[in-house]
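Task 17 of the worksheet. Students: predict the tertiary structure of the chain below and write it out as structure tokens. Keep your answer in the requested format; marks are given for formatting as well as content.
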Amino acid sequence: PERPSDPQSATTNRTASQDLSPYYEASVELGEEIAALAVDQMQPYTVMSYGKAAIVGLDGEQEHGVALLTTPYGNVLREAAGGGSAWISSATKRAQPGASIDIPLAYKDALYVRSHYDAMSITLHDVPLPDEIAVICCFANRGRPHHRVGGLSIDDAVGEDGLT
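Model answer:
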């Protein structure tokens, strides 16, 4: 069976400056909390693919969500997923409560494994409020059912460079 996981967290967007370093710093602790929930929800399955997203309330900028999803957050997700050499696909946008977002998923060790190109659609009914940012982590335990578009197979993936 497929086991998707999509924990999210809304945090107050307290800054509107050019300096985005507070977002990078906050993303580590936020990532640890969200990743722990995701791993717990995935049990007893192993994480095979991942993605991430942020929805910024209307008082913020899309760039604030992007800043929360950069490398510090991604590294926490990789560690929680049991490793992963591929970059983590992401989506960000500004929206009001009730917004939906499609979070792209890819195989955690090699982006060229097409069987794991997928997406998870979620709707956040109560967030983000204008001064909030919803941060989302998606894990999945498999690729698409009945995939047949070719490309690198998961059995042939090396997982050293994040691509093959």
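Marker's comment: The chain has one domain: 8-140. The chain is about 25% helix and 25% strand.
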